[in-house]
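4.2 Preliminary Data

To establish feasibility before requesting continued support, the project team ran the inverse folding procedure on a target of 163 residues. The structure was first converted into the token representation described in Section 3, and no sequence information of any kind was made available to the design step. The complete token record follows.
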């Protein structure tokens, strides 16, 4: 999978592109349909204000959120995409800095770990996974997230951290 990454203020200096690439590569190891070299996604590291605007305009939800995913392919199209051929736009993801930073602090985890989790989470949404459809779907999505994050040395985000 190819990622086009744009990092805006207020995200601090950091290895965000490397983190996103490592997260996507790890996810491709546990969700093989995402290893397709034809898939292309854009990832925007932006502000709560921008995510709030996107959420209001595209989702009719008048609030910021930590991550938004805008799929361009159905789950079936992702599954059935041949490995050979031109690039296919998989979708767009936007991460909101202030919400991500606040949640990381609340969870007592590094911002980089929480951002990696949200990138994996967003990519799974692009692939058609949805934790809101059923408890079984939520469990399956969480299992993939946990496995992908473990590959890059990040603890299970669903286990309580020692406080």
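Position-by-position output of the design step:
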């Amino acid at each position: 999978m190819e990622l086009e990454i744009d990092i805006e203020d207020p995200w601090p200096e950091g290895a965000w592109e490397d983190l996103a690439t490592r997260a996507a590569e790890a996810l491709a190891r546990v969700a093989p349909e995402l290893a397709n070299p034809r898939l292309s996604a854009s990832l925007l590291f932006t502000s709560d204000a921008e995510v709030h605007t996107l959420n209001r305009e595209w989702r009719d939800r008048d609030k910021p959120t930590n991550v938004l995913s805008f799929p361009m392919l159905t789950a079936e199209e992702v599954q059935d995409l041949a490995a050979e051929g031109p690039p296919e736009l998989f979708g767009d993801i936007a991460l909101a800095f202030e919400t991500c930073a606040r949640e990381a602090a609340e969870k007592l985890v590094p911002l980089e770990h929480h951002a990696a989790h949200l990138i994996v989470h967003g990519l799974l949404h692009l692939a058609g996974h949805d934790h809101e459809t059923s408890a079984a779907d939520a469990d399956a999505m969480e299992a993939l997230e946990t496995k992908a994050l473990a590959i890059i040395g990040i603890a299970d985000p669903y286990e309580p951290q020692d406080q």
